[in-house]
User: What shape does this take?
Amino acid sequence: MRAPELAVDAPPMQSGDVDAKTLPSFVYGHRSTMWWGTVGVAAIEGTVFALAIMVYFYVRTRVTVWPPEAPPPDMLWGTVNTVVLLLSLIPNHFTKKAAERRDLHAVRVGMMICIAFAFVFLFVRALELMMLNVRWDTNAYGSAVWFLLGLHTTHLLTDWFDTVVLAVLMFTGPIEGRRFVDASENAMYWNFVVAAWLPIYAVIYLAPRLL
Amino acid sequence: MTAGATVTGGIGRSSTSPPAGAWAEREGVFGALATVDHKRVGRRFIVTAFGFFACAGILAALMRLQLAFPEQTLLSADKYNQIFTTHGTAMMFLFAVPMGQAVAIYLVPLMIGARNIAFPRMVAYAYWVYLIGGVMLFVALILDIGPDAGWFSYTPLAGPQYGIGKRSDFWAQLITFTELSGLMVAVALITTILKFRAPGMSLDRIPLFVWAMLGTNFMIVFGMPAVMVSSTALIMDRLVGTHFFNPAAGGDSLLWQHLFWFFGHPEVYFIFMPGLGVVSAIVAAFSRRPVFAYPAMVLSLNATAFRAFGLWVHHMFATSIPELGKSFFTAASMVIAIPTAIQIFCWIATIATGRIVLRTPMLYILGFFFILVLGGLTGVMLASVPLDLQIHDTYFVVAHLHYVLIGGMVFPIFGGFFYWFPKFAGRMLDEALGKVTFWLMFVGFNVTFFPMHVLGLAGMPRRVYTYPADMGWGPLNLTATIGAAVLAAGVALFVFNVVRSLLRGEQAPDDPWQADTLEWATSSPPGPGNFAEPPVVGSREPLWSPHGIVGRVRGLSVEVPEVLVTTAIDARPDSRNAMPGPSLMPPIAAVLTSVMLISSIFTPWAVVWGTIPVVIALTIWFWPTKRETEQHIKLEKPP
Assistant: This one.
């Protein structure tokens, strides 16, 4: 078998040669380079979250009363947002599966629902920021809380924007098979952003009450 | 194992001509700005890192002139503070770490038989971000607003209370620039190494150089975030009134030290491990045999990468941390000597049982052994708490760190320049000049830094801009300054050698050293797309083993730049992937990112409005063109 792009005098295939033409031009999951890129970024950001939590507990050791000079953040909106974020995993999972089947219609619907969820959790996040009961410049505790919540909010914004751009592309085109890999990886990143929230929620809302 | 055996499997001279089509490089200004070829970007990264090395070296020379005699007034105390801070910052963040990655950007795809690096536009963007950030640091120094709190920028000296003006803010944002760049390159290199290897190059067959780069870049992924967190917290303390490092409001300046050194100690190994990879490559080629005990070498490299994260507190022995903690970190610091020692013994075994060829690259490696072992020994000394307390912050530490970093990184990298220059440039460097360069650098280095051990034991603190004559430190300081002049002459001679070779050097053959790895299986310099037909690999030393190259990868499109993707562990052919072509978006996005980062030094709101153009640029960058998509659809084959 000959590869037509090669020079005309290219010798025929021999045993030991690999014919790339027979291989798929896009693949999902860890077979795809996009997966490795996304996991790499998630590893970096996960490390940042872990260090920010470390900062919180380091600062905790510097004082006797916790939280210092402030009541703990109000539980309501943080808890509501945890529920919203967890529920968003459902349409997100649906979108990921649709992307893997290359079902354009279902991907469009799924992404629209995810974006609707994103509007809700961004709105609730704004309410959360107003109910922290401490400012970032009050003391180191306030700085650590705002740093954690600020970091996670940046991720919510990024995730929302990525999804909007990809959704628009899914409606306007140009579309090829690889765009479904993008949609699948976008969904995986979404899972990461939700998963990262759970320890951060525990630190911001539960730690001041339990420690 | 026959060293230099005939290359088999049909990847000889005839097939080294490059494929045409989409891999062809564009000429002119557009081509230069838009390129995403790993060789062009890598070469640029190497030259830029070398430029920052030279600039930081000039600052070192100024410091040596100031200290040559007691009570000199060449530099004021304030200027001296800015100069030593910029010297250290530039050497660590703009030379040592990026140089290791730069060499990897160029060499790793060639060594694993790939056509390009993964995420090439991201790597191009990382280059521009790095360049602009580095220039910013030196511009700040020239404008007399250079950072002045030392390269590890301790609070409270660098904090809002004592760090006046914008000096430490420039330092903190330089960190953002370099970490952004370094992290993106790390993700690209890890993906390249795990997914773009030639078929048959399973993980137990990848060159030790590539193992070293894989370990290094994994360390960067988990280590660099710590300095991003700390420098961000520092700049927030300075600009928006947070209190992370303010003990009066529940913060702690020791928190800075923990965060910084949780990055800073692994950083030593980000710098040192690429050096280990270079040593393995050169030792094999110039001993005419594979490195002894490959599995032990690989395990040692990975053990070093893990252990490096458990040492940071040994930089903090002079603080109030608990004694038990200090003992733990003393033990940990001694344990890390074991994997390094294993590697050194393996190299010695390789050299002893091989046929050593003493060319310039090998001389640098022998120099590395001598210098690194001395640096390692003073490291074991410093790991002991009572000794550390005595000589903390003295010239003994300055001597130690230069022995480790120059021995562990600069000497191997210079050896690497001599070794790979024929591949980079298609010309040989002059051997006689090379040997003179080595001896100038080796003698110059030791004359500069050995006396500093003695000065440190005699009590001379680091970072003083002058000293009184009756301390008796004059003669050794003068000796060090003379050594620095010899070292500088060596570096200048190297630059002369490079320029001379580029102008009228001898043409380099494909494989001037009869070495074992795949970068020597293609032309010098490699053409666009690296290999006409990428190789299929059958052994660990593809160019030495009779069954090293068992076939070729056929059927990749060259209408679009297509690469073969293989499985992460066994490197079985798995899919093909169309790569992005040249684009102006990476440099544009890098300029916009820089505007945002530099403006944020002056107003925190820049983070908000400065992000908008960056986001727009990234969206345009991502958005696929109709033409590209049509080409891809023609080649499309679903899984």
